[in-house]
Each structure stands twice: as structure tokens, then as C-alpha cells.
Here is the input.
Amino acid sequence: MSDPDLNSPKAIVGAIGVMVMVPMFFLVMPLYVGALSDDYGFTNAQIGYLISIELGSAALASLTALFWLRQVNWRTVLLVFLILLAAVNVLSILVGGAYEKLLLIRAVAGFSAGAMMAIALAALGDTQNQDRNFAFGVMGQLGISGCLLLVLPYFIGSRGAASVFAVFLVACVIAIPLARWIPSTGKAPTVARITKRESLLPLWGLAGSAAIFVGQAAVWAFIERMGSAAGLSPGTIGVALGSSVLAGIAGAFVASWLAGRKGRRLPMAVAMIGEIVCLLFLLGGYTTAVYFAVVIVYSICWNFWLPYQMAVIAETDVSGKFVALITLSQAVGVAVGPALVGPMISQDNFDPVVWTGIGFAMLAMVMFLPVTASPKPALADVS
Here is the structure.
């Protein structure tokens, strides 16, 4: 088939489709964890290892993409890994609660997902309107995860953990035709007349991405426990968190609407300041209304920030390779955040969670200052 233009609607939809469908295990992780516990009887430690291996394998795949991302046919690689991911999801259903087998199978699933995410992010990073297109990708992830968080519990109740793996399988099937819309390759490598400092900007941005995910993961790992400690019922907390996921679409939508209009530094600063203000309301006691408002506004601010963060890393990456490490930077933050703050929590005092979220939000805001301030370097196409 003919190679579509990177900026054609078809190519953009294809990349967004892969970005949404491939990391399904992460998008429905709360239900995934619950199903493994309730249906298979896995301990918290076993589930922790299983999720860590799947997430770690995805991060490893993004790291290896540094060496192959610009040398392979994207459509061919996507097709191979989609077939592999579909196969391991079938195997996940067949092995049931056989923990050791499932551990190996999900490691392969994570690596497949990470490799494909690297391609999807690179494809969107190569487009002209990166902010808008990344925002559309975030909106798609939020929309599908929000819907699944509402309906999937009913299937888990009747079919158990197999229904979760069935959803992962269906996502692969949906992604196969969408992957054919992605170009076989991205932009040609570029040579830039840039200083050593400017050449390190994408790495600095990736470090900032890891920092904000440390704070984000620390907050979201314990936000349900914080509501429970404040006396909120499980049903109330569930509605609040489900609403926050869907409300996050508004943040990504505004980012797509503002793309290219207000630069990046000001919108990103507004988003982080909004997060910090939200977290301050969680210090001490708070009512149900405050809890609802905080988790919803926090989600809006976070998902407003995220497309800008990915776009600025992609824009400063003149090699076109470091964008593949976005998944790695996020995975590092997700892994470190809960582990860092967990030992600081004593009884029902969750103030360390709040201060960790605030501290890393401020750190990320400062770290992205040089990245967002740098003008585009003069580039010379070497194709």
C-alpha cells in the first residue's frame, strides 16, 4: 500500500489509535489488579511483581527503540508485535491462575506494548501540530479507560480475569487496521547547528517527565486511601475517581484547542500551579465536596499538562530517537512514586503524599523552563 503523509488525518488517526489501544493494561490497571486478586487469589506481592514486570518490560522496549526506531519499517514492526500481543493475551486466558507462566507471558506483553508505543509516539512527534495530536491521543486514552472503568466490572463479575485479557485481545484486533494507516517511516534524520546544551534538552525534558510522574503516581496510588481516611464511602470515592478520569478529557481538549496559540511555558505553568493548589486542599480534613472538586480539577490540570510535555520533548529531539524514551520516563516515575512515599505514611496521615506531589510538581515546572524557552535550532535535512 502507498505510504501516507505523516500529517494526513489518516496517519494521525492511525498513530492515535495505536497509542490508545496498545497500553490497555495500564489504562484499566485498577480493575486489572482487582481481577487478578479476586479471581486468581494472587497476593499483593505477587500482583506487584506481575505489574512491575509488565511495566518494566514496556520501559525496556522503549529503551531498545533508541537503536532501531529509525531503521525499521514501522508498519511491519507494528503488525508483528500486534500479532504477538494478541497471541500472549490468548495465552493469558488459557493459563488462568498459573502464576509463573502468567509472569513470563505478561513480560512479553509488556515488551510488545512498549515497542509499539515508541512507534506511535514517534509518529505523532514527527507531525507538524504535535501539541494538538498528542492531546487527541490523551483524550482517546481517557475516553476509552473511562468507559471501561464503568462497564468492565460487570464482565469481571461474571467472567473473572479472563474478561480483562479478552478486552486486551479486542484492543489488538482494533489496532491492526489502524496500524496500516501509519507511514512506514518518519521524518528523515536531521543535523542541527546546536550547542551542547541544546542537544541535551530532550534528555532534560525526559528527566522532568520522570519527575512529574513521581509526584503524580504518588498521589494517585493513595488518593483512594486518602478519601477513605477522610470518612468517604467506597461508592463515593469510586464515583469521584471515575468522574475525574472523564473530566481529564476536558483538560486534554483545551490543550488541543490552545495548541500553537499561547506557546508552551505559560500553559504548562498554569497546569502545575493548578495541581499544587488542588493538593493544598488535601492537607488536614476535607469534605466530600472538596474531595470531588480536588480529584476532578487535579485530573483536568494533569491532562492539560501532559500533551505539552510530550510535544516539547518531541520538538527538541532533532535526532528523532529520544521521543521513544517518553514511555521509559513515565514508567520510572510510576514505579518510584508510590515506593518513595509509602514508607512516609503513618496511620491515616497522608500529608507526605501531598507534599511529595507538590514538591515534584514544582521540580518538573522548573526543569521544563529551559526546554520550553529554547528556540528551534536551525536544521538541515540529510535525506
